[in-house]
Amino acid sequence: MRKTTRYPVQGANPLWQMYRTVSFWKVMKNFIVIQLARYTPFPAWKNWMYRTFLRMEVGHETAVALMVMMDTMFPELIKIGKNSVIGYNTTILAHEYLVEEYRLGEVIIGDRVLIGANTTILPGVTIGDGAIVAAGTVVHKDVAPGAFVGGNPMQVIRAGGLADH
Fold first, then answer.
1. What distance, in Å, lies between the first and last C-alpha atoms of the chain?
2. Spans of all domains in the chain
3. Buried b (16+ CB within 10 A) or exposed e, 13-48
4. Alpha carbons 107 and 77: distance in angstroms, whole number
5. What whole-number distance in Å separates Cα of residue 71 and Cα of residue 121?
6. What is the pTM of this model?
7. Residue numbers annotated as active site
8. I want to staple 4 with a disulfide (CB 3.0 to 4.6 A). Which of 56, 82, 105, 146 is the partner?
9. InterPro entries annotated for this entry (predicted)?
10. In what order do the strands lie in the sheet with 5-8?
11. What is the pLDDT of residue 160?
């Protein structure tokens, strides 16, 4: 089970009411910063932008590839450890808007984690230190430290154990 906090809404769906949830100006600023970072070719610059303008925690020597899409509404709920790689065109979400509620949850990515290209990480998950997530995976639950996971639905390909690699 993902660790999210649920917020029921009345009337129209929460996406229709999103600016009751989060400031329009915050979303606009975040969107601009994220779009600039998506095309920035230097990992150190990206990390500085994420830390400075989005209040994300990003560890030393973490590399976020081209076109990675961070959550535009709640990027401050994303924490990435040191020396990790976030692959091309990955999406990391800290919110989800449903029909009658919205949910928020921290995304915690450990140290030395490899996230393959085109992965989607849903709110409220923790990916343990040394884990590997195969390209194209939808991460819908926690990943144990040292585990190798992949697919949709996500399956454990090799169980955890940091000594394994």
1. 27
2. 5-157
3. ebeeeeeebbeeebbeebeebbeebbebeebeebbe
4. 6
5. 10
6. 0.94
7. 95
8. 105
9. Hexapep, Hexapep_transf_CS, Trans_hexapeptide_repeat, Trimer_LpxA-like_sf
10. 5-8, 101-104, 95-97
11. 77
- Cβ(123)–Cβ(93) under 8 Å? yes
Q: How confident is the model at residue 16 (pLDDT cuts 50, 70, 90)?
A: very high
CA–CA distance, 41 with 73 (Å, rounded to integer):
24
Torsions phi, psi of 156, nearest 5?
Answer: -80, 120
Structural contact between residues 81 and 59, judged by C-beta atoms closer than 8 angstroms: yes
- pLDDT tops 50 at residue 105: yes
Instruction: Give tens-digit pLDDT for 44-96.
Output: 999 999 999 999 999 999 999 999 999 999 999 999 999 999 999 999 999 99
CATH number (3.40.50.300, 2.160.10.10, 2.60.40.10, 3.20.20.70) of 5-157 reads: 2.160.10.10
